[in-house]
UniProtKB/TrEMBL annotation:
It comes from Biomphalaria pfeifferi (Bloodfluke planorb). This is Acidic repeat-containing protein-like isoform X2. It comes from the Eukaryota. Residues 114-137 are annotated as: Disordered. The lineage of its organism: Eukaryota, Metazoa, Spiralia, Lophotrochozoa, Mollusca. Residues 114-127 have a biased composition (Basic and acidic residues).
Length: 332
């Protein structure tokens, strides 16, 4: 069998297309709708956004009753802040919101809104104010998991209304608040006891990590490709995918290095021209050729979509620029 580097350029592009599609399919399976509801008024208005599962860790004997797993969801910090936008987020306010809220994370949300859903408040700052037509297309490989048996557990269940796997936030993790700028990234954990749900997430994470590793190695031979992909839930609707490129704008650098964490590792954020809508905050951002980073204290965390800002392109035309949360990259 020929190695990837020895096949023709045309064949390489076909392989890259198939591998990229497979990666995005895996990425879609780990992306979910995030809803933040008031505990005292669960049928009132709520905040919403998008989250992405980055880790699953199992505890205990899988055959015992006390077996469980902790899922870590990466998202944008400002989704949890109902204050007016400010230059410095109020961490105290976010903790207050967390303590009085029920956090729902729904996988495979693939249906239109009903009258109840439409009451959600927009905690997102990713609106497309340019007035251009959205170029979102359907995200690949999305099938509602309505065949999984219902769990009586309070931390993981099939939502009786939409028959989707729903995880409940149990702990808000530390954010990047040691930095003197708005990094707008955070993560939260969900405790899962349903073994079927644990297996589903575990298999999807394994597929995603394998696809990422293979595609990154192949991307080294095609460094001329500039591709940014965002998958999220615009306006709390079914998943959509937005394609664009990272680039420099008048006021926004293509990649802004914010801090060198340690040797060969940096914290940075990107600017890109993807079209996004409200509800995309916290959505995972795939950047072609980006070095692979794990998740955790020593490995940092991936990029999520943060916001759009007004800017100008090279022709002095007004444009909306998408920006990621802070993320970690290995310098290779």
């Amino acid at each position: 069998m020929k190695s990837f580097s020895t096949v023709s350029s045309t064949d390489q592009k076909e392989v890259l297309f198939e591998d990229t599609h497979q990666l995005l399919e895996s990425m879609s399976g780990l992306t979910g709708l995030l809803q933040i509801l008031e505990k005292e008024d669960p049928y009132g208005s709520f905040f919403y956004g998008t989250g992405f599962i980055v880790r699953l860790k199992k505890y205990g004997d899988e055959e015992s009753d006390d077996f469980y797993a902790i899922v870590t969801v990466s998202t944008a910090y400002h989704i949890f802040n109902d204050d007016e936008r400010s230059d410095i987020p109020s961490y105290k306010k976010v903790n207050e919101i967390w303590s009085r809220s029920t956090i729902k994370f729904k996988l495979d949300y693939n249906q239109e809104l009903n009258s109840r859903d439409s009451e959600g408040r927009d905690s997102d700052k990713s609106g497309d104010s340019s007035g251009s037509e959205s170029i979102f297309s359907d995200a690949p490989g999305l099938v509602a998991e309505d065949t999984v048996s219902e769990s009586s557990s309070s931390d993981s269940e099939i939502d009786k209304k939409d028959k989707l796997i729903t995880f409940y936030g149990s702990q808000l993790l530390e954010t990047d608040k040691d930095l003197d700028y708005k990094s707008d990234w955070c993560a939260f954990e969900c405790k899962i006891t349903n073994t079927s749900h644990i297996k589903i997430v575990e298999e999807r994470l394994s597929s995603y990590q394998s696809c990422m590793s293979q595609l990154y190695q192949k991307s080294k031979l095609h460094e001329d490709i500039n591709l940014v992909v965002i998958i999220g839930h615009p306006h709390m609707k079914p998943k959509r995918i937005s394609l664009g490129q990272h680039r420099k704008f008048k006021k926004s650098p293509e990649m802004e290095i914010l801090k060198e964490v340690r040797s060969h590792q940096i914290w940075c954020r990107y600017s890109y021209d993807n079209v996004v809508c409200n509800g995309i905050s916290g959505a995972p951002v795939f950047i072609w050729g980006q070095p692979i980073s794990g998740f955790g204290y020593w490995f940092g965390h991936p990029h999520n979509h943060s916001e759009t800002t007004d800017d100008e392109d090279d022709d002095h035309k007004k444009v909306c620029v998408g920006k990621s949360t802070i993320g970690t990259e290995n310098i290779v």
